[in-house]
Structure formats: structure tokens, C-alpha cells
Design a protein that fits this description.
Elements lengths: L2 E2 L1 H9 L4 E4 L4 E4 L5 H11 L8 E4 L17 H6 L5 E6 L6 H4 L4 E6 L3 H10 L3 E5 L11 H8 L4 E3 L11 E4 L8
Parallel strand pairs: 1-8, 2-8, 4-6, 5-9
Antiparallel strand pairs: 2-3, 3-7, 4-7, 5-6
Keywords: ATP-binding, Cytoplasm, Nucleotide-binding, Nucleotidyltransferase, Transferase, tRNA processing
Protein name: Threonylcarbamoyl-AMP synthase
GO cellular component, one term: cytoplasm
Length: about 180
């Protein structure tokens, strides 16, 4: 495993690689959501089935607006009031998104993060990233680059940095109903 600088992390993302990075509570695994080979690598490394879908993470609402129905929707104010911040919302997709992002659903989980390193990463990458907890499916998520190295046997490089202040992964809500999913 290599500890990455921000610039190295962005280069790896643009090259179709999977990286680990700190988020609000745990380290996340991320890649370019529109690169099917990168997403396939991420799902393989994590041992996660395609049907589960993934979360997209962004630094600002504008990065996700082309993808989801949010503007002029009854739930817009509720969603925007929680962002940037540690709340993930399942929103209806605007146009059809690839199955590897949605898990075959007509919705996608998205978060506009207030974590400074996530913000910098999405800004430098110039778009949203996949963000799924850095663990093998069902296992405990990593909380450091050292744990990333142990879990993934050196196959995932890590953007080192401090975690946010949450002790548990972010809450997930369904925008249309307001129902809490996690």
C-alpha cells in the first residue's frame, strides 16, 4: 500500500484505480463512478454484490444535480438543509444511471460531504466519487491507512488524513418518504 498525496489520489482515480480515503466516520473506498472497470475493481476488492448499489459522494450540490431529481421537489429543502454534512439521501435519478451505481434501482444514495479532504478530493477530481465503507462486505470498516493495508493486503492505496467526528457511518434517509434507512 502506498500513502497518497491529494494529487496522487486524483491521478489514480482518473486512471481507473480504487483508493481509500477518510470520511466523516470511517475510511471509504472510492473510484470514478462512470468508469465501469474501476467500479468492477472496487466491488471485487470489497467483495460486494452489484445489486447493492453504491453511494456517491460530492463536495457540492452542483456536482450531483445532473444525476438526481432534487430541484423543485417537495423534499428539496429538507435535503439541502442537511448538506454539506454527514447525511446520505436516497434520491430518484434524473436520467438512467448505470446499474453498477444504482444496483438496478431508479434511485441513488448521495451525500454532499463537509469533510475537508473529501471536498478537496471531489473538487480536484471535478465530480462525485463512489464512496463505500472500506471493509470487506459485512466486516468492520477501516479507521486508518494501516487498517486499509491489513484488510486489503496492500492492494488499495490510501489518502491519509483524519476522520471526521462521527463514531458511526452516516445516516441514510429516503428523500421521497423521509424514512430513515440506516
Amino acid at each position: 500500500m502506498q500513502k497518497l498525496t491529494l494529487e496522487q489520489a486524483v491521478s489514480k482515480l482518473k486512471a481507473g484505480e480504487v483508493i481509500a480515503y477518510p470520511t466523516e466516520a470511517v475510511f471509504g473506498l472510492g473510484c470514478d463512478p462512470f468508469n465501469p472497470q474501476a467500479v468492477e475493481k472496487l466491488l471485487h476488492v470489497k467483495q460486494r454484490p452489484l445489486e447493492k448499489g453504491v453511494i456517491l459522494i460530492a463536495s457540492e450540490i452542483e456536482q450531483i444535480l445532473p444525476l438526481v431529481k432534487l430541484q423543485n421537489e417537495p423534499w428539496q429543502a429538507r435535503v439541502e438543509a442537511s448538506w454539506p454534512g454527514p447525511v446520505t439521501w436516497v434520491l430518484p435519478v434524473k436520467n438512467e444511471l448505470p446499474e453498477w451505481i444504482t444496483g438496478g434501482r431508479d434511485s441513488v444514495a448521495v451525500r454532499v460531504s463537509s469533510h475537508p479532504l473529501v471536498g478537496a478530493l471531489c473538487n480536484e477530481f471535478a465530480g462525485p466519487l463512489i464512496s463505500t465503507s472500506a471493509n470487506l462486505s459485512g466486516g468492520e470498516p477501516a479507521r486508518s491507512c494501516q487498517e486499509i493495508d491489513q484488510i486489503f493486503s496492500g492492494h488499495v492505496d490510501c489518502l491519509d488524513g483524519a476522520l471526521g467526528e462521527l463514531s458511526q457511518p452516516t445516516q441514510i434517509f429516503e428523500a421521497v418518504s423521509g424514512r430513515r434507512l440506516r
